[in-house]
Amino acid sequence: MNEILTPAIDWAMVGPIxxxxxxxxxxxxxxxxxxxxxxxxxxxxxxxxxxATGSLLALWERxxxxxxxxxMLVMDRAALYMGGIVLFSALLSVLLSRQYLERVPAPAxxxxxxxxxxxxxxxxxxxxxxxxVIFMGLEIFSVALYVLSGITRDWLRSxxxxxxxxxxxxxxxxxxxYGMAFIYxxxxxxxxxxxxxQARDLLAGQGDSGMALVLLLGLALMIAGLAFKVAAVxxxxxxxxxxxxxxxxxxxxxxxxxxxVAFLVLLRLVTTTFGDVLxxxxxxxxxxxxLLSMFVGNLVALxxxxxxxxxAFSSVAHAGYLLVAVAAGTDLGTSAMLFxxxxxxxxxxGAFGVASLVAETTEKGDQGYGMERYAGLSRSNPGLALAxxxxxLSLTGVPPLAGFVGKYFIFQAALQRGLEGSRxxxxxxxxxxxxxVVSAAYYLRVIVTMYMVNPEGERPRxxxxxxxxFAIAVAALGLFYLGLYPxxxxxxxxxxxxxxxxxxxxWLG
Amino acid sequence: xxxxxxxxxxxxxxxxxxxxxxxxxxxxxxxITYFATLVxxxxxxxxxxxxxxxxxxxxxxxxxxxxxxxxxDLEWIPAIGARYIFGVDGISALLILLTTLLGLIAVxxxxxxxxxxxxxxxxxxxxxxxxxxxxxxxxxxFLFYVxxxxxxxxxYFLIGIWGGARRLYATIKFFLYTLAxxxxxxxxxxxxxxxxxxxxxxxxxxxxxxxxxxxxxxTEIAWWVFLTFFIGFAxxxxxxxxxxxxxxxxxxxxxxxxxILAGVLLKMGTYGxxxxxLPLMPATAWVYAEFLLWVSVVGIIYxxxxxxxxxxxxxLIAYSSVSHLGFVMLGIFAFNQVGLSGGLLQMVNHGLxxxxxxxxxxxxxxxxxxxxxxxxxxxxxxxPVFAAMFMIFTLSSIGMxxxxxxxxxxxxxxxxxxxxxxxxxxxxxxxxxxxIVLGAAYMLWLYQRTMFGKLDNPENENxxxxxxxxxxxxxxxxxxxxxxxxxxxxxxxMLEPATAxxxxxxxxxxxxxxxxEGDALLRQAETVPALPEITDSxxxxxxxxLTSGGRP
Lengths: 509, 552
Hints:
heterodimer; A: 509 residues; mainly alpha; two-stranded antiparallel ribbon; B: 552 residues; two-stranded antiparallel sheet; 23 helices; 70% helix; globular
């Protein structure tokens, strides 16, 4: 009798994922005891995230390519890099959450557990090499985030956000699932790399010619679904309401984590599976999405008077910049996207962090996200105002901050393609760079209000807990570090393109 | 006296000062003010050796201002080839001296003018200083761009927090305008980077490769690159029609801000043309020459006419800047050594005299809190010393012989007379000269309306004349006006090697259709005395290759 062969499982490979899962379960258990009111869930969460980061770093040291569960998960450096960003942003948003949770009516322990689960799902998605695992990761973190966005269930806006996010999220999942089905239908495989070889054979004229169309449809639907998750126009309608209604630290984590892993999957899809097939098609689609996102995001953000909505549209615009880099499809593009994302993470977490501090909680919900509340902040809280200015200037792309270097890398990648003769990339780089000037107008408005507008009456001092302040300071200093000395991280991201390509090369031979 | 890190020291002393001020308690206003003054003073002292390192008296150590001296070259972002390269030739050295001098004067002029949020004010002022000095020192395009933009932020705060009534509008306009220009320039920089393809932003290498490149690919790309540079620099200068941010920014800025804006910030644009546009794309510069000359001349006349119609003292000076900067551009775009030297010297002159005029307005604004010309008249009776100082700077600004303005304008016109006839020839000199007449008109009229006549406004009767501090910061400017006027030689000596090289570069790429019978004559007149072989202090081969690339 034949034994069923089980693939050897290297548990260390899934160390970060396991650590997060176990911690989430422990925190959930604590939620059932009286200790839930104490600092225990917070400390456990931090410890879990720290342990996960540790095992992630250990994996980084091990080797460049490593896969687990019969190639379903690949723990390559691209996955580890994005996983690191997810864990770091989870860490920062947990630090931002503690003070926030003291004033809002939300169950803290459950909140932390869900956040850990969301991070875990993101890690799964980041390291997936298989259509089904992508879907699994996507659903794990999406469901956790649906609940998190509605966790302050007494607040109408929060509920609205949760419902909207859930409905539209389900819609986008449908797109992705449908796309996966088509790709599977055309290639007969769920493995991203196996798909890759099949797709190449298919388009080379071997096999059913009608299947090429099915493949194209699959790709289009996958891109549409992922565009939902990264908040690219025209799939961005949920963004402002969900960002505004969700508890602010959740918004920060959602804006970074979801976007990050969705971008990584998009990158895997276009650089490995579709690395040398249908290139003209996906390049054009991504370029158009990028153009639309930069346009709509920047122009609509101009008229926002609510800081969370402004940041929501700015995140749409940044999805556009990131898409420019992905569309470029070159090693410069890949590394630019990954580098920019690190800068984007710090600014987004920092800016939402400040926003959550400046706001106040009333019975109806969170109030005080209007721009006028920032008047005079530079006098009542000079440190906070300074940090916020750093975030805004980095989002604008002013040197010597990380946002500038990141944008520089992106437009460098785009212009390189443009000078090689691709007109759409010339348009993207000129329009994109001019739109980033437009963006200066609304980012500066925040600074103007903080420093140059006098408040009506006395501006009460915002109380900042040490952990919250620490998180914001880390974000601000990180921007200076990445802006003044980008070499360390940039060299890392430069090697990641090779990683992604090498994976495909391994299969294609 | 000289050490290799001198440029970094000059650039970063204000930054260090600003960081130290951050540690001061907010209430210690006097201590902060004194400390900021000390920092600016030290910075000026550290920069002074640059002046004495002229080719004549620095035998052995520095052989010329035509190459880059005091070079510092360190690795920064190897992946994109950006390096930390500092180095100065005669042009940038002179502008650095102007910056450190005006920096100290700006701090001194703020002692009593700024009473609110003193700590933040001096932090921003010193940060601005670092940004400006970095721009003049950078020889790496990427580094240059970083400083170029860094400079925007403190200026934006200075206008926005301590400015006049319409400060918010003015400051955002200033920021957006300049940002729009510079991001386009960034695309141009990137295009050069990719075209050269050597993974370097070192302008010395780029210039040596591009200056003699006549391939059709480069000709086509260079046309676009020159355009992006033109927009970036022209906004900063500002050249008509990109000038509309300037009157707003100037008028709303606090006095020190206006002084820095007029004295140094505007020079960034002209400096950009001289350092980057012309040496990197000399052939393309000739394609644009006619357009550039016309824009300059239109600026001269338009600025003067609009200045004449102003009712606000400060706005009048602001528009006079537009006119004067048009003059500077005319000299530079004459594309010969005389014009270049004149234009560059006039940059310094304009910094001194217009900077001083803004100080003058600041002094009176501090006493009367109005700048409307109709509020004044007969001030010379109550403030005789003030009136005398104002007279000197007025005359300097309109180009009175024996004062510095004259020598600059005269040299520019001399250069403009030699403009190639195919481009329009002497018409530019003639039109430019009418600008001088108009300049005399609006400045003297301004003087007459404010200083002479009856003292009919009772509020003006008890105005106090200059105090010691005001004496202290105006005197060096007066001295310099009287120095550069009769004896500009040391300044020209500093500029000459660099302008000779640039003029030769331009000459080499002059298209055949622009030759004319005057060439032979001019070549005789312009023969530059043979300079000693140029190497920079590091003996770096790169500047060597630039030299050989720039000359036949």
